Automatic annotation (TrEMBL):
<dbReference type="Pfam" id="PF00072">
    <property type="entry name" value="Response_reg"/>
</dbReference>
<keyword id="KW-0805">Transcription regulation</keyword>
<feature type="domain" description="Sigma-54 factor interaction">
    <location>
        <begin position="142"/>
        <end position="371"/>
    </location>
</feature>
<dbReference type="InterPro" id="IPR025662">
    <property type="entry name" value="Sigma_54_int_dom_ATP-bd_1"/>
</dbReference>
<dbReference type="InterPro" id="IPR058031">
    <property type="entry name" value="AAA_lid_NorR"/>
</dbReference>
<protein>
    <submittedName>
        <fullName>Sigma-54 dependent transcriptional regulator</fullName>
    </submittedName>
</protein>
<keyword id="KW-0597">Phosphoprotein</keyword>
<dbReference type="Pfam" id="PF00158">
    <property type="entry name" value="Sigma54_activat"/>
</dbReference>
<keyword id="KW-0804">Transcription</keyword>
<dbReference type="Pfam" id="PF02954">
    <property type="entry name" value="HTH_8"/>
</dbReference>
<keyword id="KW-0547">Nucleotide-binding</keyword>
<feature type="domain" description="Response regulatory">
    <location>
        <begin position="3"/>
        <end position="117"/>
    </location>
</feature>
<dbReference type="InterPro" id="IPR003593">
    <property type="entry name" value="AAA+_ATPase"/>
</dbReference>
<dbReference type="InterPro" id="IPR025944">
    <property type="entry name" value="Sigma_54_int_dom_CS"/>
</dbReference>
<dbReference type="Pfam" id="PF25601">
    <property type="entry name" value="AAA_lid_14"/>
</dbReference>
<feature type="modified residue" description="4-aspartylphosphate">
    <location>
        <position position="52"/>
    </location>
</feature>
<dbReference type="InterPro" id="IPR002078">
    <property type="entry name" value="Sigma_54_int"/>
</dbReference>
């Protein structure tokens, strides 16, 4: 609910404005002096202020200046009498949004207030997006400015224009579904449905019915015909999250759907043609799953037409400050807090933390801070102990995670020991993703596979 502050030393004006705007669903506060107004703006997040230029002994222009010093983004509508229009114009030069002459009509007040609040909302959205140089659209904008993030943005913008199948890989919490939604939102299919399903959350016996639908009486409990999610996504996009957890039998049926571009409901005898863009995602190494005979190689190549890998947050630390600011602004507004920025020291601590839960963990941390604290600046002491203690620091020489070479080894043996340890650390850093590990080590995937076999990794 938007908060509006009316600043006027005439009580009947305050009461009248409160009555008019409260009926529109706004939370309206009142102040009878400049000092009261400054106290309110310091303590509350005010979306809009209505300021009378004639506050008895106080100069309304001075009050406007002081309010802007407290909150430079505060929108202010000046209320003025007929004799002070020149002063009102001066106030516009100082950053006032608009001015209204007394007496004003209720409808005019409602109109200008709604216009001002819409302007404020748009300004805040622009500020959020500017914090990330290459943000992507969607119900939850994807924010970032690192080179790795910009590469993902470029891939999304390129593939969105096509209808090819996409496979998104990355650790848990990196934002795979948000990227899938961005692909949909930027595509020609944006006006149709985006349907998401977590393949790991539905028992294998029910997943076929969920995806393809069923006919009445096709199994116990099927009391009526039901459309599947592929039909619901016709002309749109279906997002198959955690595709690596799908059982082999279901994989074979999905492969047929991708090949034939048609589905068959459980218990049906006819196929139904579908026009669906498939985006799949996983935090698993599907090549390893293929080697373990738990994922079909032919399905992998059907899904992996256009791969997008989202690096973990620890590999794109340049994005952390922008993401933290975005979440801070969002939760501060939701919880009525006064947070406006993150201190440089808090940013430094967040940048050196490993973020095993990635963007999801960062979001949760900021939400928890906004629940417990009020602002105006996020300080190091607000951060959880694991972040303040530097547990995300890179390992010091000889410390935990350092490469240890056993005594008594010859040069060749020592080199092999170091190489094995480096590969182990790189695999751990990429969450077991062989493709990403090979890229990080700057060696061909086949070479990495050979060395993994050589060292029994």
């Amino acid at each position: 609910m938007e908060k509006i502050l009316i600043i006027d030393d005439e009580s009947f004006i305050c009461e009248n404005v409160q009555r008019i705007l409260s009926s529109e669903g706004f939370d309206v506060l009142a102040a009878s002096s400049g000092q009261q107004a400054r106290d309110v703006v310091s303590a509350e997040e005010i979306d809009l202020a209505l300021l009378d230029l004639n506050l008895g002994t106080e100069d309304g222009i001075d009050v406007l200046k002081s309010l802007k010093e407290i909150d430079p983004e505060l929108l202010v509508i000046i209320i003025t009498g007929y004799g002070s229009v020149e002063t009102a114009v001066e106030s516009l030069k100082l950053g006032a949004f608009h001015y209204m002459k007394k007496p004003f009509k209720a409808d005019a007040l409602r109109l200008i207030v709604k216009l001002a609040l819409k302007t404020q909302t748009l300004k805040r959205e622009v500020r959020k997006l500017r914090r990330g140089d290459g943000s992507l659209p969607g119900s939850s904008p994807i924010i970032g400015k690192s080179e790795a993030f910009n590469e993902v943005v470029a891939q999304v913008r390129e593939i969105a224009r096509m209808s090819s199948t996409v496979l998104i890989t990355g650790e848990s919490g990196t934002g795979k579904e948000l990227v899938a939604r961005a692909i949909h939102d930027l595509s020609d299919r944006k006006d149709a449905s985006f349907v998401a399903i977590n393949c790991a959350s539905i028992p294998a016996t029910l997943l076929e019915s969920e995806l393809f639908g069923h006919e009445k009486g096709s199994f116990t409990g099927a009391g009526a015909r039901k459309k599947g999610l592929f039909e619901e996504a016709h002309h749109g996009t279906i997002f198959l999250d955690e595709i690596g957890e799908m059982d082999m039998a279901m994989q074979a049926k999905l492969l047929r759907v991708l090949q034939e571009k048609s589905i068959r409901r459980v218990g049906a005898v006819k196929d139904i043609d579908i026009d669906v863009r498939v985006v799949a995602a996983t935090n698993r190494d599907l090549m390893q799953r293929i080697a373990e005979k738990s994922f079909r190689e032919d399905l992998f190549y059907r899904l992996n037409v256009f791969p997008i890998h989202i690096p973990p947050l620890r590999e794109r630390t340049a994005d952390i400050a922008a993401l933290a600011s975005y979440f801070l602004d969002d939760f501060s507004r939701s919880f009525g807090r006064q947070f406006r920025d993150v201190s440089p020291e808090a940013q430094r601590l967040m940048a050196q933390y490993a973020w095993p839960g990635n963007v999801r963990e960062l979001r949760n941390v900021i939400e928890r801070i906004c629940i417990m604290r009020s602002g105006p600046t996020l300080l190091p002491e607000h951060l959880p102990l694991e972040i303040r203690s530097g547990s995300g620091d890179a390992p010091a020489p000889g410390g935990a995670g350092a490469i240890a070479v056993p005594d008594g080894l010859g040069l060749e043996e020592a080199i092999c020991s170091i190489e094995k340890s480096l590969i182990e650390q790189a695999l751990q850093k990429s969450g077991g993703n062989v493709l990403q590990t090979a890229a990080n080590l700057k060696i061909p995937r086949g070479t990495l596979r050979y060395k993994m076999d050589k060292y029994g990794l």
